[in-house]
Design brief:
The protein is an alpha+beta fold. It has one helix and six strands, in the order βββββαβ. The strands form two sheets. A four-stranded mixed sheet has the order 5-2-1-6. A two-stranded antiparallel sheet has the order 3-4.
């Protein structure tokens, strides 16, 4: 079952950067979710999709995947672009 390894992004609702150095290994969904006839909630029988493993470094996540025989792909973090703007620019 394939997995993806990526670095946790910064929380958009807060200015802090807590846990952004953490790497996550998640399994890729293998089947589409279906609505449950009784409740209408979306779900599937794919239980590994619910597993999310956290690692301190990318190398630790790779080592775990290699040791357990999990094929993986690494999703690189996009580069950060800052738009530097002064408060006075709002009035021009």
């Amino acid at each position: 079952m394939p997995a993806r390894i990526y670095q946790m992004p910064k929380n958009a609702m807060q200015s802090g950067k807590a846990r952004t150095g953490t790497w996550v290994l998640e399994f890729v969904p293998t089947e589409a979710k279906k609505p449950d006839p009784l409740t209408g909630w979306a779900g599937s029988g794919n239980t590994p999709e619910q597993v999310s493993l956290k690692f301190p470094t990318q190398d630790a996540a790779k080592a775990y995947a290699d040791r357990e025989g999990i094929e993986y792909s690494i999703v690189n973090t996009p580069p950060k672009t800052l738009k530097i703007q002064a408060y006075a620019d709002n009035f021009r």
